[in-house]
Amino acid sequence: MSTLSDKYPSLLEVSKQFTQDGTALPLAEMLSQDNEVLMDMPVVEGNLATGHRIAQRTGMPTAYYRKLNRGTPVSKSTYADITETCAELVAWGDVDEKIANLNGNTAKFRMNQNLGHIDAMNQAWATNLFYGNSDIDPEKFMGLSTRFSSLSAENADNIITGAGSAARTSIWLVGWGEHTCYGIYPKGSKAGLTHDDLGLDTIQDASGNPYRAYRDRFVWDGGIAVQDWRYVVRIPNIDSTTLTKNAASGADITDLMMQSLERIKSLTGVRPVFYMNRTVRSFLRRQIVNKVANSTLTMDNVLGREEMQLNGIPIRRTDAILNTESAVS
User: How far apart are the first and last CA of the chain?
Assistant: First the structure.
């Protein structure tokens, strides 16, 4: 029997197909270490050069009770075509030729110098995942917060609002899956971050004077597709400044998370994961200590690392989630 990860490969797993010997690309490993969302999110190749076109169900067919010797009307689902776009994230790295060669291991030195660019791209992508708005910034892909931002929208049933009036943040429950919510990359391209070693080149300093430097270019083409919004739950309007370790005031984090488990369409056939920033997760740990001993919060060992879980669902820390969100109303 195949596992969920067999059917829905992550970015790290998809990247293996781009090496001749099947080993994972080092860049994909770096990304997954610093951005835990990438360990969970399945990634599929889009059917467009700029993204992915999907048919989203907008209405259910009708089922009828039949009388003997009588037929029933034919019914069908209704659909809307939606195009999810990808964005191109780019960073350039220049290392002075003399400095790189003095190190003794030029290639390693260049990679170490470029780690800052990789980390910056990682942070930018994670921020876009939660807050990107392609209506305002056409060069970005549409993020989750933009899709779940109104209590009067169709997906308002999957928004459990807190009572915070300042320093707002959110908790997310995402049921990742091939037909629910997943990452995408353009048709015919490579998944994840790619690196072009451009070798030695003559570049200019801030004053326009030329010098020789090694050049590297990093490109990340991708986005997300929300094919079924019922598998994403947002808990916004949590005031991060009023949280307390015993939940006597401020948000009762565990209670809100439990409510979200009843809002998601199903936990079967998907990879469900909670996401929150370090402020909220810190108070979650402390609130659990003050609750009953038979708490549903556990610490399990996964792939050699301790993983915080609620009802068996991983709880990831994602620092891209802000404490300065706009109110969801």
Answer: 44
**What is the length of the chain?**
329
Q: Residue 14's beta-bridge partner residues?
A: none
E strands, 5-76, are 43-45, 51-59
Domain count, the chain: 1
Residue 219 in tokens: 């490109």
Smallest CA-to-CA distance from 274 within 290, 258, 289 is with 258
105 inside domain: yes
The answer to whether residue 329 sits within a structural domain is: no
Token representation of residue 180: 């629910």
For 13-46, how does the pLDDT look when each residue is reduced to its tens digit (9 = 90+)? 555 544 544 444 455 555 655 677 888 899 999 9
What dihedral do alpha carbons 289, 294, 295, 299 form, nearest 10°?
Answer: 80
Kindly state whether residue 326 falls inside one of the protein's structural domains.
no
Residues 327, 127: Cα–Cα separation, whole Å: 18
Is this prediction's pTM over 0.70? yes
